[in-house]
Prior knowledge:
Acetoacetate decarboxylase-like, 12% helix
Amino acid sequence: MKTGQIRRTASAMPLTAPSYPVGPHRFIGREFLPITYRTDPDALEQVVPEPLRPAGATVLFQFGRMPDSTGFGHHAGSAQVIPVRRAGSDEVGGYIHAMYSDAHQPIAGGRELWGFPQKLAAPSLTVARDTLVGRLDFGPVRVATGTMGFKHRALAAEAALAGLLQPGFLLKIIPHVDGTPRICELVSIRFTDLVFKGGWTGPAALALHPHALAPVAGLPVREVIAAVHVIADLTLELGEVVHDYLA
């Protein structure tokens, strides 16, 4: 294979059978349960990277189900997101501190394209009689459980989609062959073409458990503030580098 052909066809590994297609990526019927809780401000200061700053002392722990996504198929995910402000601007958004998925394709694409901090785990979002239940297992160990009363109160689209209209921030790290950072960037992502299919709120609870390799309990739950159950179609656009730590 000639050098020119490699340059023309290279988009993801492996070269002759990429693990995922080039985006943007469309999600149909994406269902997710973000639970907002209050945590320790000092713990947030230890994990939010400059030039971002915590926008208060809250965290969102999210359980999600993606039944139809471009190139990624049907998978489940879970994430820990910190509301932040970007220094030198009025821009607010969510810094994705931790993320877990149950499928290789979204893990590979998420890490290599945008910098999602994804690890292989067993997240789920199901309905148990009158309760929406989110679970995150890392290996045989349960590290997070979230519950919300199923469809207790309907929400208008504006309230349900508010978080999705803000940018997300990711710390993308790709090492060089000698183990030093080859890429170390703060990346901004956005969702577009949102189609609202339903949103609800209700009483909620969240429990996080310590784990050496999935340390979500490092941002402990002090008080559950709110929960939202949302179903929507949306497009995850390709990202934008907003800060280069190696420049």
